[in-house]
Amino acid sequence: MATEPGARRARRWRALLGLALAWAAGPAAAEPAAAVIFAYQHFGDDGDPASTISVEQFEAHLRELRSGGYRVLPVPEIVAALRDGKRLPDHTVGLTIDDAHVSVYRVAWPRLRAAGLPFTVFVSPETLETGDTRMSWDQLRELAAAGAVIANQTASYARMIEQDRAYNVGQILRAQDQLRAALGSAPTLFAYPYGEYSTALRDLVAHMGFEAAFGLQSGVAHSQADRFALPRFTLNDAFGSLERFRLSADALPLLVADVTPADGVADSNPPHFGFTVDPAMGELDQLACFASGLGRAQLESVGGRRVEVRLAEPLPAGRTRINCTLPGADGRWRWFGAQLSIP
To answer: Which CATH architecture has domain 258-342?
Structure first.
């Protein structure tokens, strides 16, 4: 087995070789502009393990990002490249944090600042200064003044899929107004609370002047993806090992279209889930999909490159995920994920 420095050198050489081959083969053979965007929430506290990552794991991630082979860019810069179809360096990474928990200020920020890494914080301003677990306005201003990107996650971290359009418009506008008043400018990025969105919500956010919006489904953000439903890999105690971090940071996009349900809200349980795979992805005999709590799912080809995921039993009510992977070049994995809301 290669040593860590040797492994990093090999990864860099593979990236350079892949880029050279893509340029030599022409635009049709090149990968779309792409980046892996990570989502954190709480740091080092004793709360819900689904939303917390240990300090030790977080520090290991930062050491990995600083070790070479990655390019950590501000999320707005990544979004602009995806919007314009501009090339991004291989292994481009973006860092986001949800929830404005006080551990962002006390634990994450000092370490990110020392590492010199840019990051974005999605904030629900009406949750600030509520109890001793939330950041204060002064702390948020300090982060913004130091260069952190502050973005919108509704006024009160609302469960948007359960509300009507007028309520959701009010939640978004109140947050924009409050953040503009406190920081001097309104955010250009949005994240759906709990990662939940529907087609109607996606369309609403797209028409409210944002540059992009993010869910919490796993996958690689790329220039052919919907900019108002971009994926992020969630990192927490359960899914925060260095091995899993490297696997995610190394991922390539799995290009799909015609995903059903397009809404993100299942109309049945088990849900009828399917998609069409782009021909550029090659053979599909090693395509695999996994459903939360159920493991590997049966796949059925229904003609051409259309794939239907057959689940043997109902999924638990609430939020669930389906992740699909396909081996790519150089031992890397292509990745596409969806988060579904089960009635």
So the answer is: Sandwich (2.60)
